[in-house]
Design goal:
alpha/beta; 5-stranded parallel β-sheet
Length: 348
């Protein structure tokens, strides 16, 4: 009797384990094995886990990459103006290493015509070694044995899969149209909100002008290695437009000259390559001073995202000859801007 019970127990256990793992394999919410199948919708919510699989197993000709300030771009402007499919690779608060791996996979497995990459000022100034996120390497390697961590993941089975199946029943197709990762519809974008959450730092002594060049150069070297290795691909980089509150913070923390010096180095390095286009939105004075388009000191509204997409697709990029005069003009603007009036208005 005990042997018969044990045989039955293990048979049921193995059957349930196979069903558990098989369901994850078929639905495959991280696109580790394949893209959406059997009528399941595209479901893009967590770039840290999904980007590498999406880069390998989804169909596309163009990529749109970036952090939370790029997440609210939708794909419609790109689909309307470009002769092919565009996909988004988003990592909230991402470091360069979070983007380089899926980018490498994309360039290895696809013929990528153009990469649109929104690289925040805050990204350029950080070393990858400062990234404390522990990557799920079992999703990124070719070792089939450690896939057990994915195929037997309780979180994947009980959280992601029910959401995807529910979306399938409801006929959800929004991520196919927008690219996923949207978060801006539930946020209030206004001057009052942006000022209300901003914590103004106490003034500090100025740091050296070259204080941020170490991480910026390291990140630039990683980027240019990919640019140089893929001359057939156009890389369009843009520095997203942080608000005037970011510049108030930067000045009070003594980092204005260091930040602008870093921007100059990055712009010069990127523009030096023939297959690179660069857009510097940081100095758009009309935009960055319109706090009604922000929810804090850096995040701007979906409407701004759509406008930036239009400009990336329709306008001419920055030239090497523009860098110095634009940076000098922006320095002059920031040196004379009445930052105190922002907070007097807020208190009145």
């Amino acid at each position: 009797m005990p042997k018969r019970f044990l045989r039955l127990f293990f048979a049921v256990f193995l059957a349930l384990t196979a069903l558990f793992a098989g369901t994850i394999y078929v639905v495959d919410p991280y696109y580790h094995y394949h893209g959406p199948v059997a009528g399941l919708p595209l479901w893009l919510q967590d770039g840290r886990y999904q980007n590498v699989g999406a880069a390998e197993n989804l169909d596309y000709d163009y990529l749109l990459m970036g952090t939370s300030v790029t997440a609210n771009f939708t794909l419609e402007p790109f689909q309307q103006r470009l002769p092919g499919q565009t996909r988004k690779l988003i990592v909230q608060g991402g470091y360069f290493e979070d983007f380089l791996l899926p980018l490498d996979v994309a360039l290895e497995t696809h013929t990528v015509r153009q990469v649109f990459w929104g690289v925040d000022s805050n990204c350029w100034r950080r070393y990858d070694k400062e990234n404390t996120w522990e990557a799920p390497t079992y999703l990124f390697d070719e070792n089939l044995y450690n896939d057990v961590h994915y195929l037997l993941s309780k979180d994947t089975f009980f959280w992601y899969i029910p959401d995807i199946l529910r979306a399938a029943r409801e006929g959800y197709q929004a991520d196919e149209r927008t690219g996923g990762y949207l978060w801006g519809d539930d946020v209030q974008w206004s001057r009052e909100v942006a000022l209300g959450v901003y914590q103004r730092p106490e003034p500090r002594p100025a740091v050296a002008a070259d204080a941020l060049l170490g991480p910026a150069q390291e990140n630039l070297d990683h980027v240019l290695a990919r640019v140089d290795a893929h001359p057939q691909t156009t890389f369009t980089f843009y520095l997203p437009p942080y608000s005037i509150l970011f510049w108030d913070m930067t000045i009070r923390e003594g980092e204005l000259e260091a930040t602008l010096t870093m921007h100059e180095r990055v712009l010069e390095g990127l523009i030096s390559r023939p297959n690179v286009r660069v857009f510097y939105f940081m100095d758009d004075q009309a935009l960055i001073t319109d706090l009604d388009q922000y929810s804090d000191h850096i995040h701007y509204s979906p409407d701004v995202c759509q406008e930036l997409a239009r400009r990336l697709l329709e306008e001419e990029p920055m030239t090497a000859q523009e860098i110095a005069p634009r940076m000098e003009a922006f320095r002059a603007f920031l040196s004379t801007y009445d930052f105190e009036s922002l907070f007097q208005d807020a208190g009145s």
